[in-house]
Amino acid sequence: MRSNYKIFKIIAFSLGVLVVFWLIYDFIKSYKKIDKNYVNANTSFLKKDYKGALNLYKIASELDPENLYAIEGQARSLMRMKKYKKSEETFKLVLEKDNEFVPALTNIAILYDTIGEHNKAIIYYRKALIQDKRVSKRMSWLKRFIKNIQLKPSTIQERLFYLEEQLKLDIGKRKLKNKDIDSLQPDYEM
Q1: Less Cβ around it within 10 Å: N or C end of the chain?
Q2: pLDDT at residue 162 above 70?
Q3: pTM strictly above 0.85
Q4: Range of 164's domain?
């Protein structure tokens, strides 16, 4: 009985050591793949330095043309800089490469919503919800705290339902925009 315990103890310890070494190896291997420009672009974007973020996203996408997140980051930066046409073109470029890329689907819907093309926004909100149900979840309080967002932003699903209800009303009764609240609404991130 005592020898079985020792064997199990040795096996458990060996597996623990193996897992720790595998985690270290995996971290080192993956660390080289992290693009510093992309990380810095995200930081600049969160600090509302959209021009700096755009430049860093461009560098990241030049180094890795298949990095859809970097290209989508360019589109988000352009949208925040109010360069809506260029932003739309960039979102469409991402969607040409992967028409199920949820951040692009969601943020192009936000773009269309922002510029008043609500029917297009509804189409893309629906596509995003079909692709990934996580977009219907609310931003956690911790994420809001870290990003210094005081209000509870509406979910993509809530905005979709709101737009659909408003578009059923007569044109004079519709309220599709609230500039005070809309300007505080964050972009969607995965």
Answers
A1: N
A2: yes
A3: no
A4: 34-182
